[in-house]
Amino acid sequence: MLVDSPKRLVSRITRDTLALVLSGGRGSRLKQLTDWRAKPAVPFGGKFRIIDFPLSNCVNSGIRRMAVLTQYKAHSLIKHVQLAWGTNRMARDEFVELLPAQQRINEQSWYSGTADAVYQNIDILRTHDAEYTLILAGDHIYKMDYGPMIAYHVEKGADLTIGCIEVPLEEAKAFGVMGEDGKGRVNMFVEKPDVPPEMPGNPGKALASMGIYVFNTKFLFEQLIYDADDPNSDHDFGKNVIPRVIKRYQVFAYPFRDVQNNTQAYWRDVGTIDSYWAANLELIGVTPDLNLYDTDWPIWTHQEQLPPAKFVFDDEDRRGMAVDTMVSGGCIISGALVRHSLLFSNVIVNEHASVENSVILPNVIVNKKAKIRNAVVDKGCVIPEGMEIGFDPVADKQRFEVSPNGIVLVTPDMLGQRLHMVR
């Protein structure tokens, strides 16, 4: 699993880097999809979970020392990391540690912010003696080689380097927004501004933080201790630490771009039902921006042992078929039609049922004559015979969660069904 690609040089700086994946948040904009799991544990792409993407990026970049910081409803996240990223898969001096909120500093406080989450584990981090610390959000979908970013950090003589992307102004309110002096030096940073500042010479766009930071480790510890002693701080990187250090220290922006055509690289914050639904369905396109079939940059995960997908019955009025669709292992399409959808593992769609423009998470059963359109169906749902979802907005809003763009979220709780499996 962890053999270096012959096309990629693993350098000393990546081997001397410790990656911290911040995975403690709920992701409340995903509504009931995160009622029983943290956002990084949400399934994505047919067989993965969101956290698999930053962890795979680390492995593929040659960063083999990683720690996952957890807090909110972390059981399924912890179980997944143990199964997919356990130490039995790692070589000597390579690891994925789990760092749940442990009240290590005092017995009254859990993680109160992103900076505080790292600070509360500072005694553990010191033992790893890494020269650089790469801090990542555990809830974004993208493929990125962190090696060039760390090399850029070293070349610039930076104390802190921030990964950034260009986003439309209307979306920038959800991000930390920065300005730079034309040579990469960050000279302004504001967290989630009501009126985001526009990029000079690039109307309608703002320069947004990806939540990816490279710190010189000693500098990081100094700033964490300073921040922890500030009673007025929210102990957050975006709100407190970064705005404070940009005037006194060397802070640089690293643009995340596709090196082949020098365009904005693929990156998704699947933080709403609409964006989650859209990002999953993008994958079924002929040439999607996110290529899951890329053998040079694989996404690693826990491989459940499942039989192949099966399509049964070929009668004129009862034909099992899927068109323009991704179907995962263990699925059975039994005399039903699935069109322009993504089915996770162990989904059963029974005869005369139909699924269209929908994302169906694992272990869902769609019973006879049920119809689903423009929906996200959560793990473990059993859709009753004849139920229609996505056809009557009024009825959908009475039973389910309906997004601003009309995507229907269905969970077992909404169907009055007990949660009978780990989320």
The percent of residues in helical segments reads 10-25%
Task: Quickly count the helices.
Answer: 10
> Termini separation (Å)?
26 Å
Overall geometric form: globular
Into which percentage range does the β-strand content fall? 25-35%
User: What's the β-strand tally?
Assistant: 33
The named CATH superfamily of the largest domain: Spore Coat Polysaccharide Biosynthesis Protein SpsA, Chain A
The CATH class name of the largest domain reads Alpha Beta
Rg is 22 Å
Oligomer: single chain
What is the secondary structure topology, with strand pairs?
Layout: H1 12-15, E1 17-23, E2 43-44, E3 48-49, H2 52-61, E4 65-70, H3 75-85, E5 95-100, H4 114-119, H5 122-128, E6 132-137, E7 141-142, H6 146-155, E8 160-168, E9 176-180, E10 186-191, E11 205-216, H7 217-228, H8 237-245, E12 251-255, E13 257-258, E14 263-264, E15 267-268, H9 273-282, E16 310-312, E17 314-315, E18 318-319, E19 321-323, E20 326-327, E21 332-334, E22 337-339, E23 342-343, E24 348-349, E25 354-356, E26 359-360, E27 365-366, E28 371-373, E29 375-377, E30 382-383, E31 388-389, H10 393-399, E32 401-402, E33 408-410
Parallel strand pairs: 1-4, 1-6, 4-5, 8-12, 16-21, 19-22, 20-23, 21-24, 22-25, 23-26, 24-27, 25-28, 26-29, 27-30, 28-31, 29-33
Antiparallel strand pairs: 2-3, 6-11, 7-15, 8-11, 9-10, 9-11, 13-14, 17-18, 32-33
Binding site for alpha-D-glucose 1-phosphate: 111, 176, 191-192, 209
GO molecular function, one term: glucose-1-phosphate adenylyltransferase activity
Catalytic activity: alpha-D-glucose 1-phosphate + ATP + H(+) = ADP-alpha-D-glucose + diphosphate
